[in-house]
Amino acid sequence: MTSEQFEALAKLISLRGGQSEEAARRVLVGGEAPGTVAVDLGVTPQAVTNVVRRCKIALELARTAAGAGH
Fold it and tell me: What CATH code is carried by the domain that includes residue 34?
């Protein structure tokens, strides 16, 4: 995912900056491992996994709504 795509997705699901947005960006744009990001940010791996899952679900829904399929 590009930075531009991530910015659009973050707006779509109302990510409001902070650690959740940073974690999602690092995993989805930067390709970092969720566990590494969790340690770096001082959050639980589950928190990182949850925000990434939320982003992926929203992305699939947006694709479906746009008729892009899978």
Answer: 1.10.10.2690
